[in-house]
Automatic annotation (TrEMBL):
<dbReference type="InterPro" id="IPR050861">
    <property type="entry name" value="Dihydroxyacetone_Kinase"/>
</dbReference>
<dbReference type="Pfam" id="PF02734">
    <property type="entry name" value="Dak2"/>
</dbReference>
<dbReference type="GO" id="GO:0005829">
    <property type="term" value="C:cytosol"/>
</dbReference>
<dbReference type="GO" id="GO:0019563">
    <property type="term" value="P:glycerol catabolic process"/>
</dbReference>
<dbReference type="InterPro" id="IPR012737">
    <property type="entry name" value="DhaK_L_YcgS"/>
</dbReference>
<protein>
    <submittedName>
        <fullName>PTS-dependent dihydroxyacetone kinase</fullName>
        <ecNumber>2.7.1.-</ecNumber>
    </submittedName>
</protein>
<keyword id="KW-0418">Kinase</keyword>
<feature type="domain" description="DhaL">
    <location>
        <begin position="11"/>
        <end position="210"/>
    </location>
</feature>
<dbReference type="InterPro" id="IPR036117">
    <property type="entry name" value="DhaL_dom_sf"/>
</dbReference>
<dbReference type="InterPro" id="IPR004007">
    <property type="entry name" value="DhaL_dom"/>
</dbReference>
<dbReference type="GO" id="GO:0004371">
    <property type="term" value="F:glycerone kinase activity"/>
</dbReference>
<keyword id="KW-0808">Transferase</keyword>
């Protein structure tokens, strides 16, 4: 089975960012409700504000995917007040440093880009896997992409596996005790609640799989 992977360009990255913005707006109340359980009830509004600003960026005014990714990252850092803004912002900024040229991506390029994005989030937030944060959705997704790349699979296949792994990672946060961010103030009482950031991160990976994978050939 083959998949047609669209070329990475400002136009295709913009489709991804706009799709994610729509998903976030549709689920803003759900994300805020999750944050009400173990945080301060603003994750949905934080992400909706940031992604609405990102979705308003005109792809025609960017010469490459990298330029748009960089601006998206800077926009999130400057428009989102909460912890999530600088973390998601760093993620997109790091992607822009790896996806330097437009064109058809390999699974290995996606693995390198997502790995850099994860490393940026970890450098900034110091969360490890198991700390009940968005890292728990992103890290297994990165591992899944790396595995597909090592097995010689396609970029589209890598993104499909990444989306599954991110959803599983999100679900696994329910049983975790938070050790980073506001939820860590609750200690044991954070157990039994799904992490809001892991939920929005799984949505980002799912959106990438939908928008960047193309149609089956
Ligand atoms: P705030 O906590 O400032 O209100 P948000 O509510 O927008 O910000 O985002 C909360 C989410 O951010 C958490 O659910 C968690 O996934 C993520 N998060 C918080 N701190 C960290 C950290 N140090 N490293 C990684 N992710 C974090
Ligand atoms: Mg919050």
């Amino acid at each position: 089975m083959g998949m047609l992977m669209p070329e990475i360009s400002a136009a295709t990255v913009s489709e991804w960012l706009k799709d994610y913005s729509e998903v976030i707006s549709e689920h803003a109340n759900e994300l805020t409700d999750l944050d009400r359980q173990i945080g301060d009830a603003d994750h949905g509004s934080n992400m909706a504000r940031g992604m609405t600003a990102v979705a308003a960026l005109d792809p025609n005014s960017f010469a490459s995917a990298a330029e748009l990714l960089k601006k998206a990252g800077m926009t999130l850092v400057s428009t989102v007040g909460g912890a999530s803004g600088p973390l998601y912002g760093t993620f997109f900024l790091r992607l822009s440093t790896v996806i330097k040229t437009d064109g058809e991506p390999t699974a290995q390029l996606l693995a390198d880009a997502l790995d850099a994005g994860l490393a940026g989030i970890v450098a900034r937030g110091k969360a490890e896997v198991g700390d009940k944060t968005l890292v728990d959705a992103l890290s297994p997704a990165v591992d899944a992409v790396k595995k597909v790349a090592a097995d010689g699979g396609s970029a589209a296949e890598a993104l499909a596996k990444a989306a599954e792994a991110a959803n599983e990672g999100r679900d696994a946060t329910i049983e975790m005790v938070a050790r980073r961010g506001r939820a860590s103030y609750l200690g044991e009482r954070s157990r039994g609640h799904q992490d809001p950031g892991a939920t929005s991160m799984a949505m980002l990976v799912g959106s990438a799989a939908r928008c960047l994978s193309g149609a089956e050939s």
